[in-house]
Amino acid sequence: MQRRNFLLQAGMFSASALVAVGTNAWVARSANNNSNAKRLIVIFLRGGVDGLNVVVPYSETAYYQVRPNIAIPQPGKQGGVLDLDGRFGLNPALSSLKPLWEQGSLAFIHACGSPDPTRSHFDAQYYMENGIPGTKNTKDGWMNRLLANISNKEPIQAINVGETIPRILYGKMSVASLPTGKRINNPLSVDRPQVGAAFDKLYDGNDTLSQSYQEGRMARQAIAKDLADEMKMANNGAPLPDGFARDAQRLARLMVKDSKVELGFIALGGWDTHINQGGSQGQLAQRLKKLGDGLAVMAQTLGPIYQNTAIVVMSEFGRTVKENGNRGTDHGHGNVIWVLGGKVRGGKVYGEWPGLATEQLYQKRDLAIATDFRDVISALLKDHMQLPSSTINQVLPSYTATQKIALINS
């Protein structure tokens, strides 16, 4: 077996990127944290979440006509939506996010998404992550291109919460991967003193593979130690919910501790609701509650740096307007993007609303897309990350924003 393949199987490296940072450098940077550093976190909902049951167009008669079993009632009714602006309402399962809306740090962009017509999960996710809809030969994702343009040659500037590097972070720049749940503390073979010492001796040279091993080894030790210290902190005596909330808080704590961690990514599955989707209660509502609670925990944990953080929640496409025969929804087109952050101009649903009448639908079945998702990303890169147009063009090549969305307060 080749040495590199052995290391990959041992869990030291990701197949597409290497985690890398020295323990001493981690500690030194923490002592000089910069709360003004700009942070961007992307939460990707894999499976195509039903945006019409996230931000509900309760003023549309057609919504209730074609969803007799899964529509969420109007405000004031049992299980009704939480009114946002007199036209749209928030799924009641997301009640933990309503304070952020009222504080003006949560916004939605409805009828938004990728202009590519595919209904394939794989292709749609690929296009949303590479930032070039319709193109399959792209070798990197838009977040990796962003990292390349803001990098200070600090390999831990971007953290992926997950076991494998996603397409959005795939590319030439190194990315640190943080396992989900409790797996960060699971010992690897190299964590055994005798094995670790043997590997340290074997890869103590200056060649590329040895350098990669050394960086990966130090990164694991640094992150594991940092997380172990943070996990000892009291949380007002109450344990966090399992799953996303724990991972969201963990990523937020790392960002608070080290200002060099500027980009974060978490993918969540389970949004492909073809069967028994439910309305105010049920499968989708249960998952949305965990998502909303986790986002609220993330915002709270970010504390003072929430002011300089933007959190984007996106999915590859929406669902059909009409429910299917299994009380679920099928692959659609237009969706809703969420944006949270201390300087987000929230309390507003952005984007032109095309309507849900049959003649207004995409292919007479789906919510039409009135806002390209890249317009949202462009706005965040320009006004939040404060990048020049030339850099944005490198992150999102061959695209010029068609709408100027004023998402960020100056």
UniProtKB/TrEMBL annotation:
<dbReference type="Pfam" id="PF07394">
    <property type="entry name" value="DUF1501"/>
</dbReference>
<feature type="signal peptide">
    <location>
        <begin position="1"/>
        <end position="19"/>
    </location>
</feature>
<keyword id="KW-0732">Signal</keyword>
<protein>
    <submittedName>
        <fullName>DUF1501 domain-containing protein</fullName>
    </submittedName>
</protein>
<dbReference type="InterPro" id="IPR010869">
    <property type="entry name" value="DUF1501"/>
</dbReference>
